[in-house]
Amino acid sequence: MAPLYRTMALWLFSAAVLISAAMGSFTYFYEMRLVDSAIADHAVSEARTFAAYQSGLFLPPGSGQETITKPEAEVRLKHFLETREANPDGHFIIAEIYGAERTSLAEAAGTSWSGVKEALTVATHRFPDSTAPDYDTVTLDGQLYIRVVVPLFVGPVGATAKRLGYFEGVYHVSEARLASIRKRLVSTVLLVIGVVLGTTLFLVPVMIAVGRQLVSLSRQLVSANIETLEVLGNAIAKRDSETGAHNYRVTIFAIRLGETVGLNHIQMRALIKGAFLHDVGKIAISDTILLKPGKLTTDEFTVMKQHVGHGFDIVASAPSLRNASDVVLYHHEKFDGSGYPKGLKSSDIPMTARIFAIADVFDALISSRPYKGSIPFDEALAIITEGAGNHFDPVLVAAFITIARPLYDAFANLADEAMARQTVDELTKRYFTGGPR
Predict the structure, then answer these.
(1) Sheet bearing 134-140, strands edge to edge
(2) CATH code of the domain occupying 2-183
(3) How do residues 48-58 score in pLDDT, each as one tens digit?
């Protein structure tokens, strides 16, 4: 089962990689959003700090209060920008003041704006109607900038506050702050990825242990099911004056022929189940007919033929046994259409039933019964060969001829049920505990 555990570990590792990538990406963008928001909050605070000391800029001439002219406002704004250039986190490099009517009142740039003004101010101005600022981030030549528009109000910001105007600016995040951001991002993302991978490494042995337990339980269940099939088949065989060894031998012959003609796992399971249960319908036949030592009358044989229908009813009632129904119902059909119960012919007879018919007749020929003795191998094989095209599928007969002698030598006289059962167990294991389901 090592390949299964390797596959399980590979799946877990692949899932961990995908989850790590997803969580890492989510964490990255979430952290960037937090960083953007924090920097924007700082930029908003700076903007409102400037506006609080320049309220005269928003007063119209003749208002009776001290007003500030545009040239003077621009000088003050430029001075404000230059005094903030030493801020270790970053500073505004370009700023513009607008009135409540969104007309420009002042504009200035710091000493470090050269070469970026045109690239960062080409976008259409976005003036928020709410009290919340509007901002977006821009990366240019590896530098991080935040373009922000801050609504300015008289007094505390609220629904009834009077709007004075707007502060628009481009905030440059310093190299030191950007390096700190990147370090934090890398640390957080690596932590998330490490947690995911660490959890996966913890789960791998747990999953393997659970898998082993499930495989063990599955094998026990399969073994119990096969044992049930064997017991039921052997019980019917013994009622028909057979031995359990007959059921095992005919199953071995059918498996070997099925393998020779290349049946897949699903077909082999159906064949094996059908081989064990092929005569299960005889449970409904009276002992008077079933155990009669001589030849059956026509009426008695008519009753005997009903066992395939009874068997079909029995296996069809259990979902796990339904795939055995082809063998149970049709193993007495003949290739030329002269068999029963439906007179099917040629390829209309299911493949598993055609295979089992050869195995069943061959075992009957080479085995002793209360009413007959066994016949030699050559005579038995001759009967099978003569039946090609009428009783049996000629293609299957040709395949059986290639394996008949080794099967006869190994199992013809095998009456030891324990040894026969061991052989069957070894053959069936590969089809019920491995391969595709």
Answers:
(1) 104-109, 90-99, 162-173, 143-154, 134-140
(2) 3.30.450
(3) 777 666 665 66
